């Protein structure tokens, strides 16, 4: 019952699960990074949906006059999403740079082959 | 003994004797035989490793299916117990949010209360975010910087300069993109947007410029020196300005900030929010641009 009412959170959780499955299953490093980014997207959607209140305005108040908090949506999750996006961008860039270095060294993106080449003595 | 040593030295000098005489020959046969055995052995080890890896891959898949299924079910089950979507009386809509909305405009001078929150009440959080971006740039620079001595050209599949449509569109669009970015930066405290979005738009404009007109030209606009100076100056300015307002902003120690909140709704209002927005925007712009240049070209200059 509540599951269909909270459909936005549900979609966020499904996105998170898809990203996690991709991160765990895929042996390709680029696909792993894509999975992590999908996980991030799920978290952002979850946070944004937590702040939303039906029928309320964006929190940009008029320059003069009394302001009623009841007229606006919750603005704190918006600020948290901002932090999340910044960290996600930085982490993705760092991971991609590390992947470039791994590819330069082992000439493959497959994690199993990298393990074999690194520890199996095969070069 | 002494004479013996001298005799040996003389012989060594002439090349008739070496200190390891009588030892080198005996051990020289050993490794060669070992090598002959080693090759097939290595093959067996390799095939065993692959077999083991295959088995462990199967185990890994089974375990990960179970883990992923359990995680998905737990997450979806949790949604059942969350407060209702878009309801008014959720635990997150509490007095903190009421304070930010009702007092935020008069205390910070920003009409956009989100900008007032992230750049005044929670400014140190935003400072940390800017430093995260800067640290990521430094880390990518360390990992991907391309040695100048090699000077071998990187092969590019795409050259947008040869495409007339992309070229004409970019010529038309880049100024508009840059102006929109600057507008978003300057109106961060009045309208939706702010440092991060404006900086991302600006960085996107520079990236488009570098893609279409070539990196050599883009480097002349935003060189390595400019990027470094702008990002470090913005971060230092942020630190100093926020420290100043941290020590002078509160009403308890009797020291008042020279920069007041101003008249809400004006362009020059909101105290330090406008300059802080600009600083954050410049850091984000430099970060985006240097990510692109480092991944594409391998260096910033």
Quick description:
The complex is a heterodimer of chains A (123) and B (301). With 123 residues, chain A is an all-alpha fold.
- Strand content of chain A is under 5%
**Rg of chain B (C-alpha, Å):** 33 Å
| Overall SS class of chain B | mainly alpha
> How many individual helices of chain A?
5
Low-confidence stretches of chain A: none
- Mean of all residue-level pLDDT scores of chain A: 88
What amount of the residues of chain B lies in strands?
Answer: under 5%
Q: What is Rg of chain A?
A: 21 Å
Biggest pleated sheet of chain A: none
State the separation between the terminal residues of chain B, measured CA to CA: 68 Å
Largest β sheet strand count, sense and barrel closure of chain B: none
Query: Oligomerization state of this entry?
Result: heterodimer
Structural class of chain A: mainly alpha
Shape of chain B: extended
User: Portion of residues in helices of chain A?
Assistant: 55-70%
Residue windows where pLDDT falls under 50 for at least 5 positions of chain B? 26-34
SSE string of chain A:
HHHHH
Q: Portion of residues in helices of chain B? A: over 70%
Average pLDDT of chain B works out at 82
Describe this structure in words.
- The complex is a heterodimer of chains A (123) and B (301).
- By secondary structure, chain A is an all-alpha fold.
- In chain A, 70% of the residues lie in helices and 0% in strands.
- The model of chain A has no long low-confidence stretch (mean pLDDT 88).
- The N and C termini of chain B lie far apart (68 Å).
- Chain B is extended.
- Chain B has 2 domains: 33-80; 111-145 and 158-250 and 261-296, no CATH class.
- Helix content of chain B is 71%, strand content 0%.
- Chain B is mostly helical.
- The chains are: A mainly alpha (123), B mainly alpha (301).
